[in-house]
Amino acid sequence: MRDHDAPTDLTRRGFLGLGVGTAAAAALTACGGGKSASDAAGGAGAAKPSGTFTAKYDGPKITLSYWNGFTGGDGPFMKQMVAQFQKEHPTIAVNSNTIEWAQYYQRLPAAVTAGKGPDVGAMHLDQLATNAVRKIIVPVDDVASAIGLSEADFTPEVWQAGQFKGARYGIPLDVHSLAMYYNTDDFTKAGVTEAPTDKASFQAALDALKGKGGQDQPFWMPTRWPAHLMFLSLLWQNGGEPYATDGSRATFDSEQGVAALTWMRDMVTRGYSPSNVAIDSQYVGFKNKKLSVTWDGIWQINDLNAAKLPYALAPVPKIGETNAVWANSHNFYLTRQATQDENRLQASKVFIDWISQKSAEWAGAGMVPARKSVRESAAVKGTKQAPIAAEIAQLKFLPPVPGLGDVQSQTLEIAVANGVLGKQTPQAALKDAASKATQLMQANQKKFGA
């Protein structure tokens, strides 16, 4: 089952934080042009309080180009929101271009260079730094101020993660993380009455499921997606960090990283998981009632609802010493194309403002709205992902390091796979990968001038 983030090339999700890597993108590294949104806004003054629409458009009829990668179950929700926006704003037409995420990030640089890219778009948080340093997207500090948004409207983590080199490049729409899905029928048979919350209760649940639950292997450990996201979650839970925040080196081969990968391998050696779980197999197996519990993204909610599976969702258990789980976020961005015309810029502000305030509807796509006032509304509290929204403070994001996604797909993901498969010890797998990752990161610093 492909999720909303799923690329279609190589390791499928290996480019979740993809560096574009095309000749056009390389050319953009050194090119500039166009004003920043802050410059074009001309200084928006003090931030206005959120909760009411602050951006207005009184100009002539205009068409905005809007790019996104919502090709999965989330797509219909975004289409519906865009249609409603246009109904309420008859002078702003929105031309949506929806592309698979992998192709999206590959096509964006050349399109922007040719002046045929979007005015406004949605982009993963971990893509912002790469596209900012390539000057594909422009700062939006004054846009955020103009529509009355500040850190107080979000969590500090997701708001701060949208900054790079002292400038803001993204305005958060949502957060989406790993979660624990469990088959409620299996749990009932096994006598497990509550979702496990820590290492001891998770272990006890697996042992019970192997017996009375009727599943010989109740928790399949994947070798690839979302294995590296599970590893990052466990690393953070153990108190480690995967990378230096300045982008100079990889640190995932720490003692905390070894402990994380060792626990993942133990799921296989202790018999809870088959020895070689291919990509997507753990999710398909869970959906077909072949295993009792799995960790996957909250974007799977609608697919599981459609399958009429007896399941519930809970936060990933605290296997380490602290609560933490990998997360990402869709952020709105602007290109210089939007900032070169005052009407286009103002219409883009109105669009971002409207979608942000209507993001309770976006929760229907399985996401957690990033905006605090929306996230804490009754509409969101009644959703399947409400337990994740309630634990939003534990969500962790990768640091804003240009090219990091491409580095990670070539190193960390492979190390996790080798460790889970038993091809290398966790220590050896992580050490080799971290050494290569550091070399690539240092090369990127020279390439991007970071």
Number of domains as seen in the coordinates: 2
Enumerate the spans where pLDDT stays under 50 for 5 or more consecutive residues: 6-50
Can you tell me the CATH superfamily of the largest domain? Periplasmic binding protein-like II
Largest sheet: 6 strands, mixed
Instruction: Please give the number of β-strands.
Output: 13
Strand content: 5-15%
What does this structure look like?
- By secondary structure, the protein is of the alpha+beta class.
- The protein has two domains: 23-173 and 329-396, Periplasmic binding protein-like II (D-Maltodextrin-Binding Protein, domain 2, 3-Layer(aba) Sandwich); 180-327 and 411-448, 3-Layer(aba) Sandwich (D-Maltodextrin-Binding Protein, domain 2).
- 43% of the residues lie in helices and 13% in strands.
- The protein has helices at residues 23-30, 37-41, 75-88, 101-113, 128-133, 141-146, 156-160, 184-190, 199-211, 227-237, 255-269, 281-287, 301-306, 336-339, 342-357, 359-362, 372-375, 378-381, 386-390, 404-410, 412-421, 426-448; strands spanning 62-68, 92-98, 120-124, 163-164, 167-168, 171-172, 174-183, 293-297, 311-314, 325-328, 330-334, 368-369, 395-396.
- The strands form three sheets. Strands 7, 8, 9, 10, 12 and 13 form a six-stranded mixed sheet that branches. Strands 2-1-3-11-6 form a five-stranded mixed sheet. A two-stranded antiparallel sheet has the order 4-5.
- Strand 4 and strand 5 (167-168) form a beta hairpin.
- Helix 10 (227-237) packs across helix 11 and helix 21 runs antiparallel to helix 22.
- The longest helix is centred in the last third of the chain and has 23 residues, at 426-448.
- The chain starts with 22 loop residues before the first helix and ends with a helix.
- The model is unreliable at 6-50 (pLDDT under 50).
